[in-house]
Description:
There is one protein chain. The chain is mainly alpha-helical. It has three domains: 64-264, Fumarate Reductase Cytochrome B subunit (Up-down Bundle); 291-409, Fumarate Reductase Iron-sulfur Protein, Chain B, domain 2, CATH 1.10.1060; 416-716, no CATH class. Helix content is 52%, strand content 5%. It has helices at residues 26-53, 64-76, 85-113, 123-154, 168-198, 209-216, 223-247, 255-264, 296-304, 310-314, 316-319, 326-350, 373-378, 384-388, 395-409, 415-427, 463-468, 470-486, 502-506, 510-526, 537-546, 559-568, 598-605, 642-652, 663-675, 687-695, 707-716; strands at 6-8, 14-16, 160-161, 164-165, 458-461, 490-491, 531-534, 555-558, 581-584, 611-612, 657-660, 683-686. The chain has a four-stranded parallel sheet with strand order 6-5-7-8, sandwiched between helices. A four-stranded parallel sheet has the order 10-9-11-12, sandwiched between helices. Helix 5 (168-198) packs across helix 6 and helix 5 (168-198) packs antiparallel against helix 7 (223-247). The termini are far apart.
Amino acid sequence: MAHGGQVYSVGNEGREIFWNAPFPSEPILFFFAAIALAIFAYGFYRRWQMWKAMGRPENRTDNSGERIKSILLNGLLQVKTFKEAYPGIMHALIFFGFFVLIWGAAFDATHFHLPFLVPFFNGTFYLWFSFLMEVFGLAVLAGVVLAVWRKYIQKPDRLSYRGKMDAVADDAIVLLLLAGIIVTGFILEGFRLHVNINVDGYTWGGWSFVGYAFAKTLAGVGYDTVKILHKWTWWIHAFIAFGFIAYIPFSKLRHIVLAPANQYMRSLKPTGYLEPIPDFENAESFGVGRLEDFTWKQIFNADACLRCGRCQDGCPAYLSGKPLSPKKLHQDIKEYWLKRVPVVMAAKSAAKEGEEVVIPEPDKTMVGEVIDLHELWACTNCMYCMEVCPVFNEHVPMITGMRQYKVLMEADFSPELQLTYRNMENNSNPWGIGTHLRADWAKDLGIKSLAEDPNVEYLFYVGCSGSFDDRGKKVSIAFARLLKEAGVSFGILGGEEGCCGDSAMRGGNEYLSQTLAQMNIEVMNGYGVKKIICTCPHGYNMIKKDYPHFGGNFEVYHHTEIIADLIAQGKIALKKPVEGIFTYHDSCFLGRYNNIYEQPRKALKAVPGMKLAEMDRNHTKSFCCGAGGGRMWMEEDIGERINDMRTDQAIAVKADTIAVGCPFCLTMMSDGIKDRQKEETMAAFDVAEIVWNAMGIEEAVTAEAPQEEAGKTKEEGSPA
């Protein structure tokens, strides 16, 4: 491409082209460059003032080594961006192309003005430099072409919201600027090489192969004409570059700065971490009801959103026709912030020192108008949005904060959740069944409670579904028998066990969640519990990540981890072959939350005759069952049912059995099979049930719940 205005021969001596380079008007060039840089600096300074004007404080500068690593991997090397082929390649071509070209321009300018700093910038080095500039210039153009095709021809849904494309004009300007810089650079080079080759007889022009090809088309064009064309093109090239620099802070291009900044300030807490509300007794408000209640970093998230739509592309709420789109949520908050922050900044500037700042009330309520309540409650907390976001935006904690406000401050939430929370308060389970019945599932199995024998290695935390739900009790029985057969030392809490609190916490009732957690922790610590096994990923995640806030520090295992280890150690033998095609459904709280993907599959693959087929959406991109985030207890009255969509994905691989590792998923998949009228040919089983059946010791577990037990549960009352 156009390397300044000077040309270097293959030897060590340099030679000026037929005009002085770049031009006698260098002061004018520097003047406009300074203006562009000043606009750039002002734009980001203004943005910085806006970021710090609103939001609660939050520290995102700890553990600098890990944060720098995040920038290197995801900013420089584009690891997360590459996880999807087309957009990954498209972005990489533009990013790496421009990255190299910028450094190339810096080398070129340095050699022109301070040649002693780069004495190697001649000869063979210069020729290879020219060649690489051509390659990376073409890479940028290829990336722009791919972007244009994707944005304006393919028009994928992820780049829109319900058919309305995002930022059509802004993206067009950005792409035109990118293409303009590269194309004018190649044209400049062609003019320069035209003289070198056709007038001076240089033979090395082919190294700059794009400019060389253009120069060959100029045969017969006069020296003076080329000189004029070069001069005007050179200024056009310069002004496009200056415009590009100045436009960055005011366009989508600001992600050049915001993306690496957000990658540096990413959360280093465990996946799905939610900050507990401190000091309930003295707090004046709970949750997020106003923009100011977000942390500054959460507001920054909204500004850093690239509108790439990866989050929307796998969001079960959006894909099932509900109003929620994680991308739109961030964009709506950003738009509201852009309107609100000047008012706040003006009020702060107008207030005299020592005076209370009086900020006018907003014209819209954030929770209810800016963010529609149907959006707020549609989220299943599946974590897909946060898993795939290339800039590490944190959607779920923002949604939970707004839910907390509606539940704790306004008591405004669905009747189903009201019944669920009341049942949890009165009987420590969502169904409201008497606590004294919690251990009835185990009465014929000879399992002791910790009150009877606390000297065991593991506490089997059964959870509400495993204790009260008819289908869930079958999983508890199968797993308990499996443990006994393997000789594992374990016990249960029985009537002393309470609800883990996950549905309350993720449904916005943090007060109830903390109360339930503290009650469980007191009992567990009282028995000196060290190790806990959970069959429910929600309880597993809650006890592992949230209980430590309240003094509950335990080694927590999911039952599929234990089963896989027992099989590997030869403590259980699988003798009975299975027939048919199985597919494994990844629970969100087991997979994306805790990176447990392979252990359940190892257990299944150890079963004789196992034919395991993967659904199209699996592992990190698995599709939610629809029950997380408190949705297990709420009606799904908008759009298609998420569990039915997931069942369709299992049907698509011709599966006879859907294997799960979560009681919520088991319920949702079983319901999906019924909705699709596949009960005669398809069933859902927990991994523990499949493994127990394969051991061939006793009568196999079936998918049907005993009618008398199902009736009893119904009489006790169920919120869903």
